[in-house]
Automatic annotation (TrEMBL):
<dbReference type="InterPro" id="IPR001100">
    <property type="entry name" value="Pyr_nuc-diS_OxRdtase"/>
</dbReference>
<feature type="binding site">
    <location>
        <position position="239"/>
    </location>
    <ligand>
        <name>NAD(+)</name>
    </ligand>
</feature>
<feature type="binding site">
    <location>
        <position position="308"/>
    </location>
    <ligand>
        <name>NAD(+)</name>
    </ligand>
</feature>
<feature type="active site" description="Proton acceptor">
    <location>
        <position position="481"/>
    </location>
</feature>
<keyword id="KW-0676">Redox-active center</keyword>
<feature type="binding site">
    <location>
        <begin position="355"/>
        <end position="358"/>
    </location>
    <ligand>
        <name>FAD</name>
    </ligand>
</feature>
<keyword id="KW-0274">FAD</keyword>
<keyword id="KW-0285">Flavoprotein</keyword>
<feature type="binding site">
    <location>
        <position position="150"/>
    </location>
    <ligand>
        <name>FAD</name>
    </ligand>
</feature>
<feature type="binding site">
    <location>
        <begin position="179"/>
        <end position="181"/>
    </location>
    <ligand>
        <name>FAD</name>
    </ligand>
</feature>
<dbReference type="InterPro" id="IPR012999">
    <property type="entry name" value="Pyr_OxRdtase_I_AS"/>
</dbReference>
<dbReference type="Pfam" id="PF02852">
    <property type="entry name" value="Pyr_redox_dim"/>
</dbReference>
<keyword id="KW-0520">NAD</keyword>
<feature type="binding site">
    <location>
        <position position="86"/>
    </location>
    <ligand>
        <name>FAD</name>
    </ligand>
</feature>
<keyword id="KW-0547">Nucleotide-binding</keyword>
<dbReference type="GO" id="GO:0004148">
    <property type="term" value="F:dihydrolipoyl dehydrogenase (NADH) activity"/>
</dbReference>
<comment type="similarity">
    <text>Belongs to the class-I pyridine nucleotide-disulfide oxidoreductase family.</text>
</comment>
Amino acid sequence: MAMASLARRRAAEAVLLRRPHAAGVSAAWRGYASSAEESDVVVIGGGPGGYVAAIKAAQLGLKTTCIEKRGALGGTCLNVGCIPSKALLHSSHMYHEAKSSFAHHGVKFSNLEVDLPAMMSQKDKAVAGLTKGIEGLFKKNKVEYVKGFGKLVSPSEVSVDLVDGGSTIVKGKNIIVATGSDVKSLPGVTIDEKKIVSSTGALALSEIPKKLVVIGAGYIGLEMGSVWNRLGSEVTVVEFAPDIVPSMDGEIRKQFQRMLEKQKMKFMLKTKVVGVDTSGSGVKLTVEPAAGGEQTIIDADIVLVSAGRVPYTAGIGLDAIGVETDKGGRILVDKRFMTNVKGVYAIGDAIPGPMLAHKAEEDGVACVEFIAGKEGHVDYDTVPGVVYTHPEVASVGKTEEQVKASGVAYQVGKFPLLANSRAKAIDDAEGMVKVISEKETDRILGVHIMSPGAGEIIHEAVLALQYGASSEDIARTCHAHPTVSEALKEACMQTYDKAIHM
């Protein structure tokens, strides 16, 4: 036992030693810059990575300008992605609960109906409030905000076609490309945002489709499919791969798919789309097995294309100044986020790595810290991922398949929500927690949660991985009772010893 504890401490110390410590540096200037003046930092893109980088740069005393083509800050995430989708997920969940669960809890009513315009209005209100909030933060931190499409014309100059007309040149000692990503298209499937929509169009449908086909069983497709499924659509998900969410832990994924099927979502896996006909009132989608075989026609009112995203790096002047990208269009950067062109940096979805808003934010902070002479740091091994269905699925670290492939001896602890008192009390006990730790040291390697509020609970595990904690560390930490978080504690107890309530 003493040897195991010593090994765990050494594992934790090794993690801490890998974390760089900031060396202080500051500049005194704070204030608005005009486009005619040279900024210390110019950020192209006002999404999660870009606006966070701009604010952090200003906080570090750097004269900062942010260029955003949309005319509204927050990028895809805030305007047509993370935030509006979560608003609709919440509203649709409330309707579904009222329809299917309230009576069971003793709450009865009649004439329940969906007011879709009101639901969309609530979504838009949330988005508008948050975009204005970021503008307020820009003013507070004295970040100059230029509305227009920015294009690199030299390593220190950005040409901007202004939203209100005309153009200007913005000069900067350091330029950060934070242009985000765009919807990945499918050959032969043309998105018109009417019958065939992207996630943007799926967030703004004027009526509930009777039949919705989702192409792609990733995070976005399953979330948007869940929204319309709850509101009454017959949802079919078509996926080329043999599994939904391929990056998810296999055991969790299987249980997750069963849960979605229980909610009446249908899946056609190992299936490819070979034809689309929009000539009629709806859409006729022709599909066949991924390996080839007999074709099938699926009728739909709306088809959502959710086959992933690609970096938005074309047409922004990278070629003109010699910035290198990979075959997928991702900008290649070093550990300080600098491209091969001195003074030009890139972050977020524009570079390799997970295309997640919170990852982009971490990139943005670390990048400007490097520019300011500090030591920025992002640990990509501890970036969490969440699918915001109900229940939610959240994970951090390695899947069991990844750990097994690495050859490291490991141990697994699991705890079902059916044995969690809070989940039972609220009658929401579908799911489980799974913890994987290294056998020799008990250092946690991965945590996977399917539960109500999993996206909130996962951060205890993120912190544990960040600091090299063991499953015993979490198991011996007092958790409030009754909470769903106790399921994580019990899973950790089961990992290194035995759970109490199972």
